[in-house]
Structures
1.
Amino acid sequence: MAGARREDDVVRIWLFLCALVVPTNVAAQSQDALVMSLIFDECLGYVQEGNAPFTDYELQPARLSPARLEGSAQAASMFDGAYEARWGTDPELDMAFCIVDRKDTAQAALGVIREGFLTQLDERATAHGLVNEDPAPKLSTEFWNVWQRPGQTRGLQIVFAVTGTEGPIAELGVFSVSVPIEDRLSDVGTGGSLLVGSG
């Protein structure tokens, strides 16, 4: 089936560490540019170059799990609790990671245009040398979308999934950006200070 349901993807381990994404009861608004910025400016900038992520966002402390990541990773609630971000390194998996996933479904989700967003995401990922070798036929809750280096199962990788009901606006469910620690352009630990108060 299209949409990359591959058991050998290292990042899949991280996706299962996220809470299960369930549909929201608050209508999402289209925020394509914001979601793209979170993926490429914040998370990709962190895992590849060591830029401290989310410094322009209002964050609140969140419980980090699993506990073995204490000291090597951080967690924060964002967008009024609608989402949670986790970023840092996992010495056990030898990966640097940045994940944003849906949490409080009573808060409005970040929405993307169902027709066209996948193309935008693919174009940006391609510009970074990543390909989706098993593309989903559409942006749907039925499919995961995975971009990685051609022919590699361990390397820089972006995973993206939506939630919510079918309609013109899809809701961001979870995305992750990860890279083996040895492939990072900068050795940066956990990416700066724990939290910022507001943007």
Note: The first helix runs from residue 11 to 17.
2.
Amino acid sequence: MAIEKILSAKGLAVVAAGAGIWMYFSQKPPAHGAEVLDPSGSVARNCSGMRDQTGLLLAKPGIRDGSTIALLIMGRDAASPQPTRVLDARVPVPPDAMLNRKQRQAEYEKARTKLLDDFEEACNEAADSPQSPVFQMVKEGLAHLHARGCGPEQMCYLVAKTDARESVQPELRALIERRSKKLDVKVPPDLAGSLDNTSVAVTFCGAVEVSAHRQPNARDPDPDHVERIWKQLFRDPSIVTFVPYCGK
């Protein structure tokens, strides 16, 4: 009898611990996502790839009921560098209840498809930008996510669809165009860590998706050099990644 009581007590303790872990994760605030689009002539638009990248973002840890996703379009030039937020939507989530599950699953899939359609359509309709204020675009994307409450309790996500070739911020532009292959090139102190991505994982995608209007040039900056420069701009470079194509 004593052994049975001990085993029963241990079983209850395990159940209680499991319930505590579930409550801890369920009480964490939802994650949020944002995408920023560079519609300049130097990079291919590839809106289908951006659609696929949006789908990947929707599957990130922490994206659940209450999560939102936004799309910002890069500003036009030095006179108008501020990006425009063209979409800001709640994320549809798959049903977790068994009641009317088939109907709810169909409604979820319809809402998810519409969201992806909206992002792809906004990408296709974005006006071409004659210049590339990429730095300001990324900065505003991070500010949007922090305004949503992203912080120590929950990781959020920013996707930048761009070749990262800044053409407005003078110091950054000069560093990128220097085309140095040295691994120890440093950005100026006023730029180093100036992009606050605390608790925001950043993905740059599409660097090799060259626009059909731009011919490859021997003077094009080395992609590895561009990545090294940009990572120094972030407060937490360990959660900044570069992938050559969007949606893969």
Note: The longest strand covers residues 84-90.
3.
Amino acid sequence: MNFRKILTSFKSIIYVVVNKTKPNNKTVFKIRTAEYMYKITEPLEINWAFIQPSNLGAECKVKFVNNALVLFDEMTFEHTAQAYIELERNGFINDDNNNDNEFETDEMMLRYNAQTYSELNNKYPDRSIPEPPFPPFYNKLGENPIYSSGESFISPTRINVNSNDYWVKATCFEFLTLECALVERKKDGKFKVFFIRDNSYIFDIMDFDSIKEVKEGLTRNGFERHDSITKSDNIERHGNNKRLHELALNVGGISLPEQPFKEDKIFFTGGYSSGGGWK
């Protein structure tokens, strides 16, 4: 058998295989790669989430790229902090890279991350921080939207509450961490109170028979009506509410979480309805 013919046939086979598997539309995308998170999906497979810069409070886009340099999916989040929260919720890791974005996480998120890191280190004990890929990337958007379709991404349930009756309580002054209680009157005349963190996540819900019970319970547990604590008055306050009132007057108000609110089992602690944190 002619060796040259064998070699030519072998090269033809290699050419066909490579060109069938290689993406055929390579485009130089204007993707910022400075802020990123990553998720190890298989021992040799990493999905990268590149968080695109956005203005404060504006929508934030995230581009998903695999380690074959394929841009395969993208998602839009309400703002940058929300993108980080939901990516972490879905197992993406931030290894203290060069992102300058700071956002607050609550105790449940910290526990979740600790578990994620522990499982990762057990699975890959000798792992080192991987280096992210750089453009140009292959354009395969829409062909495998595993995150934007919800197939491999858990998004919180969005909830709209028909009320503006906010009550507030400061739990940490170092970062001005607030808990908000939003009181909603139901059709049967009873009341539902949604307890919301300042990142718009609902962490508890309680039902009351009357507005009197609502007011007494919230006051007893350190909450004060938002429209009261942000106005000058002669009410005698103590502790955190006194400091919160003074701060509200100095800065001209207190920001409230925005609707739609989000409900996720990771963040839903039930700290008040369980009785443990409710006086």
Note: DSSP finds six helices and 13 strands in the chain.
